[in-house]
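hey m, so remember when u said the tokens were messed up on ur end? i reran from scratch. heres the input so u can diff it against urs
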Amino acid sequence: MRRSRCRYQWYQRYKALSLHVLIAIITASCNPINIDRSQTNGSNDNTPTTSSVVCTIPETLPQNLRDTCLYTEMAFYTINPALVYYKPNFPLWTDDAEKYRWVYLPAAPINTKDPNQWVFPKGTQFFEEFRRKNLKTGQIQRVETRWMAKRTDGTGFDA
């Protein structure tokens, strides 16, 4: 009951946002996430790691994934080591697609003074990739990649 009430409160507050942004807010505030660093840097502990790679947000909306910092080598789909792989504890069903999520957090901390409304620092980026198995060939195909970035300080739709 507690979790449902929390989701409903978030829906009422942010119903003007897109569904994907709403899901990210709910996941960050109501449900803890599992961080799996073995997907990115080989370490199985949840201690923060530092990276010399800085992911900057492009001035204009990127037209291609190579213009973001998701991959270091686009030809091999090598995930940037500065990104942290994570899974929500309560994932949504996505038509049999597998979802992979990464976040880039700049050196600034997340403001968690209000546990119902986390404020991520400027420069935070979220990536979500959908993959499906091709039934004819058996190969895994990347179907869709979503990118969200916090470009301005503060709270609200554009922050």
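this time it looks ok to me. Residues 33-149 form one domain. if urs says something different then somethings off w ur setup not the seq
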